UniProtKB/TrEMBL annotation:
FMNH(2) which is absolutely required for this enzymatic reaction, is provided by SsuE. It comes from Duffyella gerundensis. It holds the Pfam family Bac_luciferase. HAMAP family: Alkanesulf_monooxygen. Keywords: Flavoprotein, FMN, Monooxygenase, Oxidoreductase. Its EC number is 1.14.14.5. One of its GO terms (biological process) is alkanesulfonate catabolic process. It catalyses: an alkanesulfonate + FMNH2 + O2 = an aldehyde + FMN + sulfite + H2O + 2 H(+). Belongs to the SsuD family. SUPFAM superfamilies: Bacterial luciferase-like (SSF51679). CDD domains: Alkanesulfonate_monoxygenase. This is Alkanesulfonate monooxygenase.
Length: 381
């Protein structure tokens, strides 16, 4: 099975070391453009753009990079509770049209109560997933061309519809990651691609089986992806030395502060990440070549595959054998590591490289009248 490999746009910062400003670099538009264009040229299938108050806005970043890339797809966050599903559908269709079908969307419910409160979201974990389910039902149906009346506990729309359809039909794919039962239920009902963070293969296998069974019970099939960091070098020894250097400036106080902040979140996935290493430096290789050092100070995905090209490719194949089709990788710093991955890892993978989308003929219509389009007159015989 050919694998699709994505890269990451570090809109929250980048550098050579974690947990310190040492070796950091400014993340401006010029730098993000360098990373995106490198990923585009090197054969990555797309880029994940993170979301949150510590990041530049994912939608604006994606829109700004469309004209300077050719085939790169942009995985952009949807935030239920922060925006209406109808407005989000209009934005999604617009981004898909402007990119000529290169838009993908990642449903993010959020997990940090302090950040959520700052965005006006005060729901607990269970209610956030209930709201996300309602949001997604409306978002999907509107994008698929329906006129939607919906009255739920959290979402209420009447006559919601889309006047400009997306390029991808019936709509752009929806991605989502979450480890709780509520998250898996949502994925089984509505999601196209279920993402897991880089847990050991046995744990990933269990999650895939759970989501697959729940989706089958609803007559659906779900595809699977995984989010990992990667440290690849010419030899395994060099790769492990690079892993050690990455956290060379991280002290115990920084680790303790980061872990305390992570425990504040109600994310089941974040707690599972933290449990892999428990904040300890002496138990970071949690599975062969799977290193949890990133998670000492970084929230979200906290594990990296470490080794030479053949070794990392073999570990990726173990995940692929479980049903993983897409790997979203990243490395520090992201520009240089994109080239290392291309040079040292890609030759050992059966890589799926997207084609450059061909130009399309847009539908012709005049200016809207009374908030609608006037029908085109039939051609005279």
């Amino acid at each position: 099975m050919s694998l699709s490999v994505f890269w990451f746009l570090p809109t929250h910062g980048d550098g050579r070391y974690l947990g310190t400003a040492e070796g950091a670099r400014p993340v401006d538009h010029g730098y993000l453009q360098q990373v995106a264009q490198a990923a585009d040229r090197l054969g990555f299938g797309g880029v994940l753009i993170p979301t949150g108050r510590s990041c530049e806005d994912a939608w604006l970043v994606a829109a700004s990079l469309i004209p300077v890339t050719q085939r790169l797809r942009f995985l952009v966050a949807l935030r239920p509770g922060v925006i209406s599903p109808t407005q989000a559908a209009r934005q999604a269709a617009t981004l898909d049209r402007l990119s000529n079908g290169r838009a993908l969307f990642n449903l993010v419910t959020g997990g940090d109560p302090e950040e959520l409160a700052g965005d006006g979201v005060f729901l607990d974990h269970r209610e956030r997933y209930a709201e996300s389910a309602e949001f997604t039902r409306v978002w999907r149906r509107v994008l698929e061309g329906e006129t939607v009346d919906y009255e739920g506990k959290h979402v209420h729309v009447r006559g919601a519809r889309l006047m400009f359809k997306p390029v991808q039909q019936p709509r752009p794919p929806l991605w989502f990651g979450g480890s709780s039962d509520a998250a898996q239920d949502l994925a089984a009902e509505q999601v196209d691609v279920y993402l897991t963070w880089g847990e050991p293969p046995a744990q990933v296998k269990e999650k895939i089986a759970q989501v697959r069974d729940k989706a089958a019970a609803q007559g659906r099939k779900v595809r699977f992806g995984i989010r990992l960091h990667v440290i690849v070098r010419e030899t395994n020894e060099e790769a492990w030395q690079a892993a050690d250097r990455l956290i060379a400036h991280v002290d115990d106080e920084t680790i303790a502060k980061a872990q305390a902040a992570f425990l504040r979140a109600d994310s089941v996935g974040q707690r599972r990440m933290a449990a892999l290493h428990a904040g300890r430096r002496d138990r970071l290789e949690i599975s062969p070549n799977l290193w949890a050092g990133v998670g000492l100070v970084r929230s979200g995905a906290g594990t990296a595959l470490v080794g030479d090209g053949p070794t990392v490719a073999a570990r990726m194949q173990e995940y692929a054998d479980l049903g993983i089709e897409t790997f979203i990788l990243s490395g520090y710093p992201h520009l240089e590591e994109a080239y290392r991955v291309s040079e040292l890892l890609f030759p050992h993978l059966d890589l799926q490289v997207p084609e450059v989308p061909q130009p399309r003929v847009a539908d012709a219509h005049g200016e809207a009248v009374a908030n609608d389009f006037t029908p085109q007159k039939a051609a005279r015989g």
